[in-house]
Amino acid sequence: MMVVAEVVVVVVVVVTAAAIVVVVVVVVVVVVVVVVVVVVVVVVVVVVVVVVVVVEVVVVVEVVVVVVVVEVVVVVVVVVVVVVVAVVVVVVVVLLLVEVVVVLVVVVVVVVVVVVVVVVVVVVVVVVGSSSCSSSSSK
């Protein structure tokens, strides 16, 4: 009976370790995704700032009103596009984080259920084994 209990303990340890590894991998992936998204947003903002500065210089140099209006429209369109892209990126990151939290909760619940079942099985095996040993030794 002790062999069964030892095997059950080893299985619990292995399952718990595997769950911890899965959680760590998921967290690392999320961190990498967030870093990539932040880098992309920073690059987009830098590009927009450069475009706006260049457009402003062109606008200052130009004398024709039509060109000024066109340049202002271009700046507004670029800013709107950047804002829309930034909002989409933030929504995607939030959805990814929510998905990761759900996965982590499921993993934790599964590990807790497995540990509880294994503990119950070990207790039952030990109680039945000790009662059968004591009843057979008393005869």
TrEMBL record:
<keyword id="KW-0472">Membrane</keyword>
<protein>
    <submittedName>
        <fullName>Uncharacterized protein</fullName>
    </submittedName>
</protein>
<keyword id="KW-0812">Transmembrane</keyword>
<feature type="transmembrane region" description="Helical">
    <location>
        <begin position="39"/>
        <end position="65"/>
    </location>
</feature>
<feature type="transmembrane region" description="Helical">
    <location>
        <begin position="72"/>
        <end position="97"/>
    </location>
</feature>
<keyword id="KW-1133">Transmembrane helix</keyword>
<feature type="transmembrane region" description="Helical">
    <location>
        <begin position="103"/>
        <end position="129"/>
    </location>
</feature>
<feature type="transmembrane region" description="Helical">
    <location>
        <begin position="7"/>
        <end position="33"/>
    </location>
</feature>
